[in-house]
Amino acid sequence: MNTPESTTPAGYRAGHVAVVGRPNVGKSTLINALVGFRVSIVSRRPQTTRHRILGISTLEGGQIAYVDTPGLHGKQPRAINRYMNRAARGALADVQIGVLVIEAGQWREDDQRAFDVLVEAGVPRVLVINKVDKLKEKGALLPFIQKVVEGRDFIEVVPLSAQKRSGLDTLQKVLLKHLPESEPLFEEDQVTDRSERFMCAELIREQLMRRLGDELPYASSVEIEQWEEDGKMARIHAVVWVERDGQKAIVIGAGGEQLRQIGMDARLGMERLLQRKVFLQVWCKVREGWSDDEKSLKSFGYTD
Ligand code: GDP
Ligand code: MG
Predict the structure, then answer these.
(1) Which ligand is nearest to the Cα of residue 26, counting in written order?
(2) Is pTM, for the whole model, over 0.70?
Protein backbone atom coordinates (compact mmCIF):
# COMPACT_ATOMS: atom_id res chain seq x y z
CA MET A 1 0.00 0.00 0.00
CA ASN A 2 1.21 3.44 -0.73
CA THR A 3 0.36 5.27 2.47
CA PRO A 4 2.16 8.58 3.09
CA GLU A 5 4.28 6.83 5.73
CA SER A 6 5.65 4.29 3.30
CA THR A 7 7.08 7.05 1.10
CA THR A 8 9.80 7.73 3.69
CA PRO A 9 13.00 6.53 2.02
CA ALA A 10 14.82 3.65 3.61
CA GLY A 11 17.52 4.81 6.00
CA TYR A 12 15.83 8.15 6.63
CA ARG A 13 16.91 9.55 9.97
CA ALA A 14 15.36 12.13 12.24
CA GLY A 15 15.71 13.42 15.76
CA HIS A 16 16.32 16.22 18.19
CA VAL A 17 19.68 17.86 18.72
CA ALA A 18 20.27 20.21 21.65
CA VAL A 19 22.60 23.10 20.94
CA VAL A 20 24.40 24.31 24.02
CA GLY A 21 27.29 26.60 24.77
CA ARG A 22 28.10 29.75 26.64
CA PRO A 23 26.94 33.11 25.25
CA ASN A 24 28.75 34.47 22.22
CA VAL A 25 30.29 31.27 20.90
CA GLY A 26 28.06 31.53 17.83
CA LYS A 27 25.08 29.24 18.50
CA SER A 28 22.54 31.54 16.85
CA THR A 29 24.79 32.17 13.86
CA LEU A 30 25.27 28.43 13.49
CA ILE A 31 21.59 27.59 13.70
CA ASN A 32 20.65 30.34 11.28
CA ALA A 33 23.23 28.99 8.86
CA LEU A 34 21.95 25.43 9.22
CA VAL A 35 18.28 26.13 9.05
CA GLY A 36 16.31 27.46 6.13
CA PHE A 37 14.09 30.21 7.40
CA ARG A 38 10.89 28.93 5.84
CA VAL A 39 11.26 25.36 7.01
CA SER A 40 11.93 26.61 10.50
CA ILE A 41 8.29 27.66 10.68
CA VAL A 42 6.60 24.38 11.28
CA SER A 43 3.84 23.22 13.48
CA ARG A 44 4.92 20.95 16.24
CA ARG A 45 3.45 17.55 16.65
CA PRO A 46 2.21 16.89 20.17
CA GLN A 47 5.06 14.65 21.28
CA THR A 48 7.58 17.42 20.77
CA THR A 49 5.90 20.18 22.76
CA ARG A 50 8.39 19.86 25.59
CA HIS A 51 11.05 21.25 23.29
CA ARG A 52 11.64 24.76 22.26
CA ILE A 53 12.49 24.28 18.64
CA LEU A 54 15.09 26.69 17.35
CA GLY A 55 14.91 25.46 13.81
CA ILE A 56 14.50 22.43 11.66
CA SER A 57 16.76 21.41 8.88
CA THR A 58 15.21 19.07 6.38
CA LEU A 59 17.84 17.28 4.32
CA GLU A 60 17.72 14.59 1.72
CA GLY A 61 18.55 11.79 4.14
CA GLY A 62 16.75 13.05 7.19
CA GLN A 63 15.53 15.79 9.43
CA ILE A 64 17.29 17.50 12.31
CA ALA A 65 15.36 19.52 14.88
CA TYR A 66 17.63 21.86 16.80
CA VAL A 67 16.34 22.53 20.28
CA ASP A 68 17.16 25.02 22.97
CA THR A 69 18.17 24.19 26.53
CA PRO A 70 16.68 27.02 28.58
CA GLY A 71 18.30 26.07 31.89
CA LEU A 72 21.73 26.72 30.49
CA HIS A 73 21.41 30.44 29.96
CA GLY A 74 22.88 32.55 32.71
CA LYS A 75 21.81 32.84 36.31
CA GLN A 76 18.12 32.89 37.07
CA PRO A 77 17.09 33.24 40.68
CA ARG A 78 13.75 32.41 42.32
CA ALA A 79 10.77 30.86 40.59
CA ILE A 80 12.21 31.26 37.15
CA ASN A 81 15.17 29.20 38.29
CA ARG A 82 12.97 26.35 39.45
CA TYR A 83 11.27 26.45 36.10
CA MET A 84 14.60 26.62 34.28
CA ASN A 85 16.00 23.59 36.08
CA ARG A 86 12.95 21.58 35.18
CA ALA A 87 13.15 22.92 31.66
CA ALA A 88 16.81 21.94 31.25
CA ARG A 89 16.05 18.40 32.37
CA GLY A 90 12.99 18.28 30.16
CA ALA A 91 14.79 19.70 27.18
CA LEU A 92 17.57 17.13 27.39
CA ALA A 93 15.41 14.18 28.35
CA ASP A 94 14.81 12.91 24.86
CA VAL A 95 17.29 14.58 22.59
CA GLN A 96 19.56 12.17 20.78
CA ILE A 97 22.63 14.39 20.54
CA GLY A 98 24.00 17.38 22.40
CA VAL A 99 26.08 19.76 20.33
CA LEU A 100 28.48 21.69 22.52
CA VAL A 101 29.58 24.81 20.69
CA ILE A 102 32.84 26.41 21.77
CA GLU A 103 35.10 29.04 20.27
CA ALA A 104 38.37 27.97 18.67
CA GLY A 105 41.26 28.43 21.09
CA GLN A 106 39.10 28.91 24.18
CA TRP A 107 37.94 26.59 26.91
CA ARG A 108 36.42 28.41 29.86
CA GLU A 109 34.57 27.58 33.03
CA ASP A 110 31.22 28.13 31.31
CA ASP A 111 32.20 25.73 28.52
CA GLN A 112 32.94 23.13 31.16
CA ARG A 113 29.58 23.80 32.82
CA ALA A 114 27.69 23.23 29.57
CA PHE A 115 29.70 20.05 28.99
CA ASP A 116 28.86 18.81 32.50
CA VAL A 117 25.14 19.36 31.98
CA LEU A 118 25.24 17.16 28.87
CA VAL A 119 27.21 14.48 30.70
CA GLU A 120 24.77 14.50 33.62
CA ALA A 121 21.87 14.16 31.20
CA GLY A 122 23.59 11.20 29.55
CA VAL A 123 23.40 12.77 26.10
CA PRO A 124 26.04 11.80 23.50
CA ARG A 125 28.12 14.85 22.69
CA VAL A 126 29.39 16.35 19.46
CA LEU A 127 31.99 19.07 19.93
CA VAL A 128 31.68 21.96 17.50
CA ILE A 129 34.66 24.24 17.43
CA ASN A 130 33.35 27.42 15.88
CA LYS A 131 35.14 30.53 14.57
CA VAL A 132 38.10 28.61 13.14
CA ASP A 133 38.40 31.51 10.67
CA LYS A 134 39.61 33.64 13.58
CA LEU A 135 42.60 31.43 14.29
CA LYS A 136 45.70 33.24 13.12
CA GLU A 137 47.74 30.09 13.17
CA LYS A 138 45.96 27.14 11.59
CA GLY A 139 48.49 24.77 13.16
CA ALA A 140 47.11 25.68 16.58
CA LEU A 141 43.81 23.89 15.92
CA LEU A 142 44.97 20.32 16.32
CA PRO A 143 46.76 20.79 19.66
CA PHE A 144 43.73 22.73 20.90
CA ILE A 145 41.38 19.88 19.95
CA GLN A 146 43.68 17.41 21.66
CA LYS A 147 43.66 19.49 24.82
CA VAL A 148 39.86 19.76 24.91
CA VAL A 149 39.08 16.11 24.21
CA GLU A 150 41.66 14.90 26.73
CA GLY A 151 39.58 13.22 29.44
CA ARG A 152 36.29 14.41 27.92
CA ASP A 153 34.14 12.11 25.89
CA PHE A 154 32.82 13.27 22.50
CA ILE A 155 31.45 11.06 19.75
CA GLU A 156 32.70 13.50 17.11
CA VAL A 157 34.61 16.75 16.79
CA VAL A 158 33.77 19.20 14.01
CA PRO A 159 35.74 22.41 13.51
CA LEU A 160 33.86 24.97 11.43
CA SER A 161 33.06 28.58 10.80
CA ALA A 162 29.37 29.35 11.13
CA GLN A 163 29.93 32.83 9.79
CA LYS A 164 31.86 31.73 6.71
CA ARG A 165 29.52 28.75 6.32
CA SER A 166 32.37 26.31 6.11
CA GLY A 167 32.16 22.88 7.67
CA LEU A 168 28.37 22.94 7.91
CA ASP A 169 27.85 20.00 5.54
CA THR A 170 30.23 17.91 7.58
CA LEU A 171 28.35 18.74 10.76
CA GLN A 172 25.01 17.81 9.24
CA LYS A 173 26.36 14.50 7.96
CA VAL A 174 27.84 13.72 11.35
CA LEU A 175 24.58 14.52 13.14
CA LEU A 176 22.45 12.48 10.76
CA LYS A 177 24.79 9.53 11.15
CA HIS A 178 24.11 9.46 14.88
CA LEU A 179 20.34 9.99 14.73
CA PRO A 180 17.98 7.02 14.73
CA GLU A 181 16.09 5.83 11.69
CA SER A 182 12.71 7.48 11.83
CA GLU A 183 9.85 9.00 9.95
CA PRO A 184 10.12 12.76 9.52
CA LEU A 185 9.09 14.48 12.76
CA PHE A 186 7.80 17.62 11.12
CA GLU A 187 5.93 18.39 8.02
CA GLU A 188 7.46 20.99 5.82
CA ASP A 189 5.58 24.13 4.87
CA GLN A 190 2.93 23.68 7.48
CA VAL A 191 2.68 27.21 8.72
CA THR A 192 0.46 27.93 11.66
CA ASP A 193 -0.54 31.17 13.24
CA ARG A 194 0.89 29.99 16.51
CA SER A 195 4.33 29.36 15.15
CA GLU A 196 4.30 32.63 13.22
CA ARG A 197 3.54 34.47 16.43
CA PHE A 198 6.23 32.55 18.21
CA MET A 199 8.79 33.29 15.52
CA CYS A 200 7.89 36.99 15.50
CA ALA A 201 8.29 37.18 19.28
CA GLU A 202 11.65 35.46 18.82
CA LEU A 203 12.73 38.07 16.28
CA ILE A 204 12.09 40.80 18.84
CA ARG A 205 13.87 38.84 21.52
CA GLU A 206 16.83 38.36 19.20
CA GLN A 207 17.08 42.12 18.65
CA LEU A 208 16.84 42.75 22.39
CA MET A 209 19.70 40.33 22.98
CA ARG A 210 21.76 41.75 20.16
CA ARG A 211 21.40 45.36 21.32
CA LEU A 212 21.32 44.95 25.08
CA GLY A 213 23.43 41.84 25.61
CA ASP A 214 24.24 41.48 29.29
CA GLU A 215 22.16 44.54 30.09
CA LEU A 216 19.01 42.73 29.07
CA PRO A 217 17.15 41.88 32.27
CA TYR A 218 16.86 38.10 32.62
CA ALA A 219 13.27 38.64 33.66
CA SER A 220 12.17 40.00 30.33
CA SER A 221 9.73 38.41 28.00
CA VAL A 222 8.15 39.22 24.68
CA GLU A 223 4.44 38.83 24.11
CA ILE A 224 2.55 39.32 20.87
CA GLU A 225 -0.56 41.06 22.16
CA GLN A 226 -2.40 41.63 18.95
CA TRP A 227 -2.15 40.39 15.40
CA GLU A 228 -4.40 41.65 12.67
CA GLU A 229 -4.36 40.89 9.00
CA ASP A 230 -5.06 44.06 7.12
CA GLY A 231 -5.18 43.39 3.40
CA LYS A 232 -1.65 42.52 2.36
CA MET A 233 -0.24 43.67 5.67
CA ALA A 234 0.11 42.21 9.15
CA ARG A 235 -0.40 44.63 12.04
CA ILE A 236 1.44 43.36 15.06
CA HIS A 237 1.43 44.78 18.58
CA ALA A 238 4.10 43.41 20.84
CA VAL A 239 5.03 44.00 24.46
CA VAL A 240 8.43 43.59 26.04
CA TRP A 241 7.68 42.82 29.66
CA VAL A 242 10.24 43.74 32.31
CA GLU A 243 10.13 43.84 36.09
CA ARG A 244 11.22 47.34 37.00
CA ASP A 245 11.14 50.91 35.76
CA GLY A 246 14.94 50.93 35.57
CA GLN A 247 14.87 48.00 33.21
CA LYS A 248 12.23 49.68 31.13
CA ALA A 249 14.50 52.71 30.79
CA ILE A 250 17.29 50.47 29.48
CA VAL A 251 15.06 48.77 26.95
CA ILE A 252 13.62 52.04 25.70
CA GLY A 253 16.94 53.90 25.63
CA ALA A 254 17.60 57.63 25.40
CA GLY A 255 14.74 59.33 23.59
CA GLY A 256 13.23 55.94 22.79
CA GLU A 257 15.97 55.29 20.27
CA GLN A 258 16.89 51.81 21.47
CA LEU A 259 13.37 50.41 21.28
CA ARG A 260 12.77 52.14 17.96
CA GLN A 261 15.83 50.41 16.45
CA ILE A 262 14.83 47.09 17.96
CA GLY A 263 11.39 47.45 16.41
CA MET A 264 12.77 48.45 13.04
CA ASP A 265 15.18 45.53 12.78
CA ALA A 266 12.63 43.04 14.10
CA ARG A 267 10.11 44.30 11.57
CA LEU A 268 12.52 43.66 8.67
CA GLY A 269 12.97 40.10 9.92
CA MET A 270 9.19 39.66 10.19
CA GLU A 271 8.65 40.88 6.66
CA ARG A 272 11.15 38.33 5.40
CA LEU A 273 9.54 35.63 7.50
CA LEU A 274 5.93 36.40 6.62
CA GLN A 275 6.64 37.54 3.07
CA ARG A 276 4.42 40.55 3.45
CA LYS A 277 4.46 44.07 4.81
CA VAL A 278 4.41 44.39 8.57
CA PHE A 279 3.32 47.27 10.71
CA LEU A 280 4.93 46.65 14.08
CA GLN A 281 4.45 48.47 17.34
CA VAL A 282 6.53 47.47 20.32
CA TRP A 283 5.90 48.71 23.84
CA CYS A 284 7.88 48.07 26.96
CA LYS A 285 5.76 47.50 30.06
CA VAL A 286 6.54 46.78 33.68
CA ARG A 287 4.97 43.84 35.43
CA GLU A 288 6.42 43.74 38.90
CA GLY A 289 7.72 40.48 40.25
CA TRP A 290 6.34 38.35 37.46
CA SER A 291 9.29 36.02 37.44
CA ASP A 292 8.48 35.17 41.04
CA ASP A 293 5.05 33.99 40.20
CA GLU A 294 4.79 30.63 38.51
CA LYS A 295 1.26 31.39 37.39
CA SER A 296 2.30 34.35 35.34
CA LEU A 297 5.25 32.37 34.00
CA LYS A 298 2.71 30.01 32.54
CA SER A 299 0.83 32.87 30.96
CA PHE A 300 3.98 33.73 29.04
CA GLY A 301 4.26 30.25 27.68
CA TYR A 302 6.92 29.07 30.09
CA THR A 303 5.34 25.72 30.75
CA ASP A 304 6.91 22.30 30.56
P1 GDP B 1 25.48 32.97 20.64
O2 GDP B 1 25.41 33.90 21.82
O3 GDP B 1 26.20 31.72 21.01
O4 GDP B 1 24.16 32.70 20.02
O5 GDP B 1 26.42 33.68 19.56
P6 GDP B 1 26.04 34.51 18.25
O7 GDP B 1 25.58 33.61 17.16
O8 GDP B 1 25.14 35.62 18.62
O9 GDP B 1 27.47 35.06 17.83
C10 GDP B 1 28.25 35.86 18.66
C11 GDP B 1 29.24 36.64 17.84
O12 GDP B 1 30.18 35.78 17.21
C13 GDP B 1 28.58 37.43 16.71
O14 GDP B 1 29.21 38.67 16.62
C15 GDP B 1 28.84 36.59 15.49
O16 GDP B 1 28.88 37.35 14.31
C17 GDP B 1 30.20 36.00 15.80
N18 GDP B 1 30.44 34.72 15.11
C19 GDP B 1 29.60 33.66 15.05
N20 GDP B 1 30.15 32.67 14.31
C21 GDP B 1 31.35 33.12 13.89
C22 GDP B 1 32.39 32.54 13.08
O23 GDP B 1 32.33 31.43 12.57
N24 GDP B 1 33.51 33.31 12.89
C25 GDP B 1 33.62 34.56 13.40
N26 GDP B 1 34.75 35.23 13.17
N27 GDP B 1 32.66 35.12 14.17
C28 GDP B 1 31.54 34.42 14.40
MG1 MG C 1 22.24 33.28 20.62
Answers:
(1) 1
(2) no
Burial class (CB in 10 A: 0-12, 13-18, 19+), 194: exposed
pLDDT of residue 193: 43
pLDDT confidence band for 199 (50 / 70 / 90): confident
Pocket test for ligand 1, best of 19, 20, 22, 24 (most atoms within 8 A of CB): 24
Tell which one of 19, 22, 25, 29 to mutate to probe ligand 1, the residue whose CB is within 8 A of the most ligand atoms: 29
Burial of 1 (0-12, 13-18, 19+ CB in 10 A): exposed
Fill in the DSSP letter of residue 9: P
Ligand 2 centroid distance, CA of 197 (Å): 19
Say if residue 190's pLDDT is above 60: no
Annotated domain spans of the chain? 13-178, 196-299
Express each pLDDT in 12-49 by its tens digit.
999 999 998 888 898 878 887 887 543 333 333 333 33
Q: CATH assignment of 196-299? A: 3.30.300.20
CATH topology agreement for domains 13-178 and 196-299: no
Cα 91 to ligand 2 centroid, rounded to whole Å:
17
Architecture in CATH of 13-178: 3-Layer(aba) Sandwich (3.40)
Strands 221-230 and 233-242: antiparallel
- Neighbour-count burial of 100, counting CB atoms closer than 10 A to its CB (0-12 exposed, 13-18 middle, 19+ buried): buried
